[in-house]
Amino acid sequence: MISLLAGVLFGPGARWIRPDEYALHSEENLEYINLYLCRMVLGVQLVIAGIQLPSKYLQKEWRSMAYLIGPGMVAVRMIPIRSCNPIFPDIKPWGYDIPISGVEVAHFN
User: Fold this and answer.
1) Which of 2, 24, 43, 93 lies 20 to 30 angstroms, CA to CA, from 80?
2) Distances (CA, A) of 25 to 18, 52, 69
3) Does position 109 have pLDDT exceeding 60, yes or no?
């Protein structure tokens, strides 16, 4: 119900929100506005999800969190780092691989 009301209030029929005018009739500015608005909404949602966790959640689920954060995050970063070497053979192993792998991970997630 809340999503329906938000869609009616902020949807295409709403004449009080004019994103094209806010972006100065520039498609590039409109893309930046949408990008940062989406990032802000995602950040608020993550904070709310963290607040809604039970108070003893981390004490109870520390093993599963350690498995996800430890080896899981290492694997998520190491696979793209190692895939950079055949693609870019001239770069130093740990000099530029890490930022390139960060871009790969961010792009494909």
Assistant:
1) 43
2) 10, 40, 43
3) no
